[in-house]
Amino acid sequence: VAGLCNGANNLLGLITIQYFDLSFITPFKTGISMIVTFLVSILFYKEKFSLRQYLAVAIGIAAIVLMSIKI
Fold first, then answer.
1. 50 phi and psi, to 5 degrees?
2. Taking a C-beta distance cutoff of 8 angstroms, is the pair 61, 31 a contact?
3. H or E element at residue 59
């Protein structure tokens, strides 16, 4: 299953590179991977996270959003 998800992620990356700049795709792809991994761990594996871990995920997502902003 992990291999299929990784393959789908790479395929979507190759498709989107035709339409968007690489400077936008890379942080976005990283962010989506992080969010999906986080959600899978909660929904399927029933993992419990501490407040500190939720804050770390939020900071990571904020960092990815900030990296995606064009100046």
1. -85, 170
2. yes
3. helix 51-68
